[in-house]
Amino acid sequence: MATMTLKKTQTGTMKAQLADILMAVSWSDLSRTYFGKSNSWLYHKLDGIDGNKKPTDFTIEERYQLKGALIDLADRIRRAADTID
């Protein structure tokens, strides 16, 4: 069984890591639903620059929360797809 881990030393922004799905996900909805935060908060985190143009990043807890949110969303999409005959 494979185990997935998060690596703090990955290069680039989280936005670069998620490039394949950036246009397919409602980040505003994800931010509100899974983090209880504004969409601008999440966009700043994804870009790696806060509203004051200072570097920012996800905390390790926020990274796990984002990972869990994406896994939950994937599961929800799979269940919806499975209902199609």
Task: Explain what the structure shows.
The structure is a single chain. The chain is 53% helix and 0% strand. With 85 residues, it is mostly helical. It is elongated. The mean pLDDT is 89.
Q: How big a fraction of the residues is strand?
A: under 5%
- Helix-strand makeup class: mainly alpha
Radius of gyration: 14 Å
Shape: elongated
Largest sheet: none
Helix content: 40-55%
Mean pLDDT: 89
Give the uncertain stretches in residue-range form.
Answer: none
Number of strands: 0
- The SSE string, one letter per element, is HHHH
Query: What is the CA–CA distance across the termini?
Result: 31 Å
Short account of what is shown:
The chain is an all-alpha fold and 85 residues long. It has helices spanning 14-17, 27-35, 39-47, 60-82.
List keywords for this structure.
85 residues; mainly alpha; 4 helices
